[in-house]
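Design job #97: recover the sequence.
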């Protein structure tokens, strides 16, 4: 299996995990970046640095807004990370961030700015294709609009478990274009003969070494030998073009991405911490679901969950766990179809809303739900926390409030608001 995924060749996965992981990593990283930059200081830079092509953005009013915008963007991204109203929080955050970066770019187009532009674009893609994300607050909210029959169909495996990842598809294509543009930009800023000779690369290493005063031994061979400089330039151009070529041909992108990461590492070793953000951007296209599958509970270690198929709160709470069960190690059985040996018919109705049977041991109610969470390795810390005495007491109360109390023997009643 490939370490990285060519989403352009196939944007359908067997798990929605990749979208959730990328949303959390991307949003968290951009929050840190946005809050760590000194936006207030950019308005004090001298005007002779202004890029006239976007000079209309070089306005005192815009620079005055930057320190306030950074907190608005950070707040929106906190909601984006958990997947709350992603279409609006992600959309507004990306557009505001693009404006902030454009204003900064009028005085200095640094690698950080270009990398954050890519991040802003990815966030915008999440906003445009928010319905693909099944492990978010929005996805849970959407289950309120689904009938009990539909929710039960998800739990019992009657629905298709193929998940679109269009945000990552168009994001990968954009990253591939960015790297081709970087290679093409060198040719446009020629003359090309200087780049091909390696002289420009040698000059950059000397310039940044003098500017920072930091000796970088890895750059010495390139400075002293033109052949190394030529190989460095040609190799860089080929690696940068290879990603888009692999995307277009529908082949594995693992080697191109590893090659570009290697290129960024070599830049760090020879020039300094430039474009380090792009290493994180490239890692977003890793096969996170494949790694999770290797950590997940083996399919042979099956547990059976008996749930109250008449309880709307119960079915809604269990649906996200179905999406996390990549090895099908949990079998969900409606209580109305459960064998007698798995169900305590004399149990309190609230406790009887959920049973978990594993290795001959049967748990009920809140404890069953806690043990169920523990089967998903990513949620093990949460399951442990739910077992701590004070949390368990509060959790049991909340569980009892969430589960409706039905008299035994009462036939299924229609859902409120439904006929």
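Job complete. Output follows.
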């Amino acid at each position: 299996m490939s370490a990285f995924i060519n989403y352009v060749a196939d944007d359908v996965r067997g798990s929605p995990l990749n979208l959730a992981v990328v949303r959390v990593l991307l949003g968290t990283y951009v929050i840190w970046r946005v809050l760590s930059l000194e936006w207030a200081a950019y308005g004090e830079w001298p005007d002779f640095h202004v890029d006239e092509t976007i000079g209309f953005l070089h306005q005192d009013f815009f620079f005055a807004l930057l320190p306030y915008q950074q907190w608005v963007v950070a707040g929106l991204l906190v909601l984006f990370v958990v997947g709350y109203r992603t279409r609006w929080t992600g959309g507004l955050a990306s557009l505001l961030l693009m404006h902030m970066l454009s204003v900064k770019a009028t005085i200095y187009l640094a690698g950080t700015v270009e990398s954050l532009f890519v991040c802003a674009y990815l966030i915008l893609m999440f906003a445009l294709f928010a319905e693909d994300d099944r492990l978010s607050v929005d996805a849970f909210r959407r289950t309120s609009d689904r009938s009990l029959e539909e929710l039960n169909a998800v739990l019992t495996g009657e629905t298709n478990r193929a998940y679109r990842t269009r945000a990552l598809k168009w994001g990968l294509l954009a990253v591939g274009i960015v790297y081709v543009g970087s290679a093409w930009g060198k040719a446009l800023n020629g003359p090309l003969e200087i780049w091909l000779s390696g002289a420009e690369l040698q000059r950059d290493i000397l310039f940044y070494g003098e500017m920072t005063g930091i000796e970088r031994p890895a750059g010495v061979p390139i400075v002293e030998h033109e052949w190394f400089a030529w190989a460095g330039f040609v190799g860089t151009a080929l690696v940068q073009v290879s990603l888009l070529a692999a995307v277009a041909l529908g082949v594995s992108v693992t080697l191109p991405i590893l090659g570009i990461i290697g290129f960024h590492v070599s830049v760090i070793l020879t020039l300094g911490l430039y474009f380090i953000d792009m290493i994180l951007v490239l890692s977003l296209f890793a096969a996170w679901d494949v790694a999770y599958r290797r950590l997940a509970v083996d399919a042979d270690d099956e547990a059976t969950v008996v749930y109250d198929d008449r309880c709307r709160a119960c079915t809604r709470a269990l649906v996200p766990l179905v999406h996390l069960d990549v090895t099908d190690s949990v079998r969900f059985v409606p209580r109305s179809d459960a064998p007698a040996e798995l169900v305590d018919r004399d149990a309190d109705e609230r406790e009887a809303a959920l049973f978990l049977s594993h290795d001959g041991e049967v748990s009920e109610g809140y404890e069953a739900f806690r043990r169920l969470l523990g089967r998903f390795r990513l949620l093990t810390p949460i399951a442990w926390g739910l077992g701590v005495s004070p949390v368990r007491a509060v959790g049991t109360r909340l569980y009892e409030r969430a589960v409706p109390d039905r008299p035994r023997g009462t036939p299924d009643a229609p859902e409120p608001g439904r006929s």
